[in-house]
TrEMBL record, chains A, B:
Location relative to the cell: Cell membrane
Protein name: ABC transporter permease
PANTHER family associated with the record: ABC TRANSPORTER PERMEASE PROTEIN YPHD-RELATED-RELATED, RIBOSE IMPORT PERMEASE PROTEIN RBSC
UniProt keyword list: Cell membrane, Membrane, Transmembrane, Transmembrane helix
Isomerase as UniProt keyword: no
A GO molecular function held by the record: transmembrane transporter activity
Membrane topology summary: Multi-pass membrane protein
Transmembrane segments: 31-53, 73-103, 115-136, 142-162, 174-204, 235-256, 268-301, 313-330
One Gene Ontology CC term in the entry: plasma membrane
Automatic annotation (TrEMBL), chain C:
InterPro entries, A to Z: AAA+_ATPase, ABC_carbohydrate_import_ATPase, ABC_transporter-like_ATP-bd, ABC_transporter-like_CS, P-loop_NTPase
Name of this chain's protein: Sugar ABC transporter ATP-binding protein
Biological source species: Thetidibacter halocola
Domain ABC transporter stretches: 11-246, 256-499
Keywords associated with the record: ATP-binding, Cell membrane, Membrane, Nucleotide-binding, Repeat, Sugar transport, Translocase, Transport
Domain of life: Bacteria
GO molecular function, one term: ATP binding
Keyword Membrane appears in the UniProt entry: yes
Amino acid sequence: MSELNNNVDTARAAGTGLTMGAGRLFGVIRAVYGAIPGPLLGLILVCVVFSWLSPYFLTTRNFINIFSQVSEIGIMAAGAALVILIGGIDLSVGAVLAVSLMVNAWLYRDFGVPFVLSTLVGLGVGALVGFVNGILSTYGRIQPFVATLATMSACSGIALFVTNGGPVTGFPEWFTALATIRVAGIPLEMIILVSVYLAVAFWLNFRPTGRALYAIGGSEEVARLSGIDTQKVKILVYVIAGLLAALAGLILGARLDSAHPTAGAGDLLSVIAVVVIGGASLSGGSGGMFGTFIGLLIIGVLRNGMALLNVSPNLQPVVIGVAIIIAVMLDRRSQR
Amino acid sequence: MSELNNNVDTARAAGTGLTMGAGRLFGVIRAVYGAIPGPLLGLILVCVVFSWLSPYFLTTRNFINIFSQVSEIGIMAAGAALVILIGGIDLSVGAVLAVSLMVNAWLYRDFGVPFVLSTLVGLGVGALVGFVNGILSTYGRIQPFVATLATMSACSGIALFVTNGGPVTGFPEWFTALATIRVAGIPLEMIILVSVYLAVAFWLNFRPTGRALYAIGGSEEVARLSGIDTQKVKILVYVIAGLLAALAGLILGARLDSAHPTAGAGDLLSVIAVVVIGGASLSGGSGGMFGTFIGLLIIGVLRNGMALLNVSPNLQPVVIGVAIIIAVMLDRRSQR
Amino acid sequence: MFDAAHSEPGLVCRKIVKSYGSIEVLKSVDLTLRPGTVLGLIGENGAGKSTFNNIIAGVVAPSGGEMVLDGAPYAPQSPSDALARGVALIHQEIRLLPELSVAENLFLGRLPMRGGRVDRASMEEQSHAVLARLGMRIDPRRRVRGLSMARQQGIEIAKALLRDPRYIIFDEPTASLGEADAALIFEQIYRLREDGAGVIYVSHRLDEITTLADHVACFRDGNKVAEWHRMPVAKQDLINAMVGREFTFEHHAPQPSGDRIAMRVDGLGRDGAFGDISFTLRQGEILGFAGLVGAGRTDVVRAIAGADRADTGTIEVDGVKVHAVSPKAAIAAGIVMVPEDRKGLGLNLDRAAAANITLPWERTLQRFGMIRPSDVSEMGGAQRDRFDIRGRMGLPVGSMSGGNQQKVLLAKWLVREPKVFIVDEPTRGVDVGAKMAIYEIIRGLAASGIAVIVVSSELEEVLGLSHRVLVMSEGRQTGILDRKDATPESVMALAVGGKAVRPQLEPSA
Amino acid sequence: DSKPVIGVSVADQKSLFYIAAVDGMRAAAEDLGYELNVQAANNNSRQQIDQVNNLLVQQIGALVFISQDSTAAAAGVKAANRSGVPVIAVDQRPETGSGDLVTYIATDSVKAARDLCTWMFGQMGGKGQIAILKGVLGSTAEIQRTQGCEEALAAHPDIEVVAIQTANWDENEAFKATQNILTAHPDLDAVFGESDAMSLGAAKAARQAGRTDLISVGIDGFPTQLKAIQEGLTQATMAQIPYTMGYMAVEQAVKVINGEGGDIPELQYQDAVLVTGDSVGGVNAADFYGPAANNM
Ligand SMILES: Nc1ncnc2c1ncn2[C@@H]1O[C@H](COP(=O)(O)OP(=O)(O)OP(=O)(O)O)[C@@H](O)[C@H]1O
Ligand SMILES: Nc1ncnc2c1ncn2[C@@H]1O[C@H](COP(=O)(O)OP(=O)(O)OP(=O)(O)O)[C@@H](O)[C@H]1O
Ligand SMILES: [Mg+2]
Ligand SMILES: [Mg+2]
């Protein structure tokens, strides 16, 4: 009975003279709308529009394209989401991608270091930069924005410096072949992307250290008084972010069979945007991997769809801007 | 007596066997060190190093260069400082610079609108974008990062769209002449820069609306409960930021005698960096115009000094990164 | 439309309703406040007192009902509307801007101007005057950060007084104050009443209500369940109305403590804060910390619990030396502390109550390397039942009433049995029923052999609970009294003891 | 010791073109015994003006100026003119023609793009679908290379441009853009990348999609592109000779400093060299990008 009343109320609130049946339908729609988590609604809307406008949008091949196009940004965004969750920010991700890949390629080519070893060193460089970010923003008591701005600057310089600005080509065959490998029709990079998200999401939801991130982001002092070693956890988060950026670099290197010192430089804003569109707050404590993944797909689908429609490159940024606003407006959770 | 004890304590704390006199000297140095506001110390250090390394650094002409080199970033940073003070962020400044200048140049060249009028329209565009930023992040309840990311994207698209990506040249002579005018040996842009800072600082310190920014940044809820119309003030702040970005665009247009749709695109990070190096916290409520000005000079002097020393372009970012860390570390206020 | 009563001066509220979603927080409340009187408002935690006050002060909009102020309809859209009509509210939670000066906090939203600039001189002068009226000597130019809770509460009151309100609401102003500071506030209330203002006074300290109020209303579950227009009223009647049944106070003496030493603190100190703190604590013993507000009790217990470092001294638990360099180390050694500021230090208000409770214990919750949400809610549910917490454990703690938040905070620290349990101001802002429940919890802990330290500004509380009372003054330990020797007089004598040692001057900003 | 320093302001030190030009300059300076002060501006014309001013403060003898773009070049040239420092412009010069230059050394970008597109259309038999991958919108190189291709298109009515996207000179962006274009236009015949990096990205995307027959051409003549042409991944490039241009610039700057600049022509267009699968065997990357090209 009360449910019925509810529906009637809703219908009345909508200011229409609907019959009982229509009111019930409206209530169902509202319930479905309410049940879908925030940014997903924006994604669905974008997808509906594009599949209506372009016959190529809803094809398997195009979906695989979308995933592979967002793979590096997506992997970096997974790390960025963690950093943002603890109320920090990491501006160095793009530069870390570049420097780790350049060091890797440089050691392999100019010093004949075995590729597996040089790759490990490259990943180590990523982790090291993350460690420095962590130390500076905890024990160094420097705002993460400033600390990571400094390491970003330093890393982009070092990436240029090792080869004096030149790119490096000629990775091992087997490595570049990874970029085209498909497992059951799914490209490896897509598998890596999804695995990273699943692993991070598991950590964040089911492991004590991962769960501590929410506590730290909510209130660092409360977390500290609750016996969490906040400094250690924060440093770990920056290390993970650095490692993931280096991993993204590897994927990029395999795809292009080359290492560019300026690779990743333009990705920074996209990476942070993905996390924030996914519903995270830059002040920390809220957000998660599901939202980030949706944010990633919103950006990926928008870019892909406009390319399919051959929208003028001059207009694309305008459409993206408007679409971001609409997508976020649909997210009622962000409206608090 | 207690002061004396203090000095002795200090000397002892320094772990040295200093005599009383040296202890006193040490105390004086410490007192001076303590009295200098934070980031200024970093600036002084950077200046001392450069004047020691380069004979050209300490010349009037070079100082005028430094000021004129930071003028647009500085003017944009004044607006960004206000936005950051209320706990917001404005990613659109660079794009606003571009779009306001392009609209101005486009109206003037393609429609024969009198230049003074087209300039007013250009400034109006800046204010309008700021207004949209403000509305979206207050009544629209969208995080400022997302709202201004969207307007940034839209503005950079519109800047390209009006002339289909082409730059515009040929401003009136008298306008470009402004770029080389000097009043008592001081370039006009330097006068404008300093005036903007003084005006904003006055507003922030002595006018109720300006003071309200600190309250809003400290706690919006407290400000609202105290009867401050927080929404209105926040919108005003974004409008000011937009206007200042458009003003920076005018200075750039006069200097380069051209309007470029991608002008200002690379300035965003520098603008925010200036504010944050100047001691502001991205979570709002702290910072001010003096600190921002010092932050501006730190960035300006670093870039200028390294050019004078002929540091390899690839190494410059590394040095800048390290210098930022050192400059900020010297700021004891940020160490809380 | 309006009956004759409306032409009389006063604030008349009729059928005030407030609901959050499907939850009705206020269910049709009628209440009238006359000028020149004090209306005492009582009720259990979560009864809806603060919500009612917020509606009157324009902070939240009612879902239904109407208000009439001095004969004219009154529907404030914002706090500034309310202030413009002469209605001011002193919030239950302190709401000041720590980075701004005291003077600026006082004048926030209406800074005085002269010659196009903010008139700092007159602002500071007026601030000085109003603070002096409240017996507070604070430099108006210093920042609020670093001021004790009591002083911040005083500033909140000064801020409201500066508006010259005709109707003023005090929502638990004395919750964080000692008796001396509370007396200053009462003086102000008497003065306001004499000047013809209408005052609403909310408190869980019923003695305050019986002394101050001319008229008392009691809320329960969003309804006004009782009203007394004639004073005096017996305290027991108030309690019965609040709780909704016969409720008896029992003041039983604590059970005797054990013999084994649980904790030994020797010569604990930190430069500029406190020093020479030495005591032993037996298993099952409750040690009270008494002293004037700002005596440094919180600093001491924070150092013991690893929240701040100590420069000198040693701590032993069960004969083993503890290096309490961090809360983590202290917890591992069996020392837990419930901090005094539940909003800033104790709980994460945006997170679910269950997640707050499990936070320190998640490592022990793991099964097969993972923490399952069901285990979290199970632990939350168990603690809810154990401590009689009213509210959904899956909702953010911030949406619970103050008393229930306090219970969540205690529950968080009592998931596992500690060796030493420290509570700082355990009953701040808690209703009588909950207060008794918390006392029972503390006594029960002691009875099970846990050593307990209770820090409280309510002398009655310290004396009623403790086996022994440690008294502090100006950061020094001035004495430890046995239960039989601890009287209000003997404790106060020690509490003011070391006064001359520390200069009374304000630290400048 | 009395020899003045030669100031060099270059748009950036990240892309091979500029790196090679500066390498050429350094080689010339070494050969002639002069010192260089090289500043790079991160592709920011505003910053470049600052750097020119910073160089002028140090009383340089001549300025070799590779402007980030032609519209903003005038301000730098004028500043040098005001200080009486001779300017040798490379690659870009003030669009409006204002300011005094000793000489201007550049590739004729419009012609290079026109010739390249014409060659590509020939390969396609004069008809079919193409896509254009543009550089950073509004940059001079983008505008000129687009213009050159449009001129060629005007002469080939049966060539249909089915997609125009920007990939900001970036290989990875070109890769993604081409993926999308190939999805929407499976019958695409050729891609004109306005730079080699974008051409390489396009070719790799085509290879991933199994389109080995897609024609991909670029402009620049980077060593990586030459290798790709050799392997058949891409089909052609227009090789510029930045190393030589840089060498010439410093050589001529020295002449001007020594008062021997009278016979330097005002305009020195350097022809870009079309390199295709047929001719790639006969060229060496070092011819275009200097000795350093061999270890890239
Ligand atoms: N924003 C909100 N959303 C949902 N419920 C709320 C909200 N604010 C308050 N409540 C609920 O309203 C009820 C009344 O709360 P209120 O703060 O008025 O109680 P109170 O009588 O002041 O209690 P206390 O003595 O503890 O301060 C509580 O149950 C509380 O959980
Ligand atoms: N008169 C005062 N004015 C300003 N600050 C004070 C004053 N007295 C103490 N303080 C500050 O408060 C701290 C000591 O207060 P603390 O909170 O530890 O004492 P407390 O006895 O627990 O009092 P409370 O009842 O407020 O919790 C000191 O570190 C000091 O900075
Ligand atoms: Mg309350
Ligand atoms: Mg205390």
